[in-house]
Specification:
This protein has 183 residues and is mainly alpha-helical. It is built from 7 helices and 2 strands.
């Protein structure tokens, strides 16, 4: 039940990031056309794109990407370990990363709160509230930390079972069989 809720939040954040990306592309395209064909650029586009939409795109999709295995995995030591040791190493790495992300979420959340309470704004064509730009960092980092902790707990519960995609030795054997060892 809790995992289903977590997946739903991950997917919702991913869709928000996707919508932000589409809006960003549309705004930049419309701005280019308006600027060069009609000499009437969208004066708000640059601030909205760089300070709000890019932040959303960069942070909100992180938990979904982790769940889908879309991050790069370095396996210097893992390929030489047994299944249990490999899973313990993964748990340790996930918990360390989660601790760093919790710190980032905490401090960026405090900064967001200060900007909200202070009524800070970026002055320009439109006075944009700063907190609407910074709120996405603590949300994305906190959800990624939660996903890492969830994954670590699942690994702890199944220490002696290999996880799909984690057994580098099996992947190496497949590569050798398919390519004759050539990479």
């Amino acid at each position: 039940m809790l995992e289903r809720i977590h997946q739903g939040v991950d997917i919702t954040l991913f869709w928000l990031a996707g919508i932000a990306l589409i809006v960003m592309m549309a705004l930049v395209s419309i701005d280019v056309v308006a600027r060069y064909l009609f000499n009437a650029p969208l004066t708000f586009q640059f601030e909205l794109t760089t300070n709000y939409l890019m932040v959303m795109v960069a942070t909100l999709g992180l938990p979904w990407c982790l769940r889908r295995g879309a991050f790069i995995k370095l396996s210097v030591v893992g390929r030489f370990l047994g299944v249990r040791s490999h899973n313990l190493l993964h748990v340790f790495n996930a918990l360390v990363a989660a601790a760093v992300l919790v710190a980032i979420a905490w401090f960026s959340g405090a900064r967001t709160w200060d900007k909200f309470v202070g009524g800070d704004a970026m002055f320009g064509v439109i006075d944009w509230p700063v907190w609407l730009s910074t709120i996405w960092v603590p949300i994305g980092c906190a959800m990624l930390a939660l996903r890492l902790v969830t994954d670590a707990l699942l690994r702890l519960r199944n220490l002696d079972r290999p996880v799909d995609g984690d057994d580098e030795r099996t992947q190496d054997a497949r590569d050798i069989a398919e390519n004759g060892g050539a990479s």
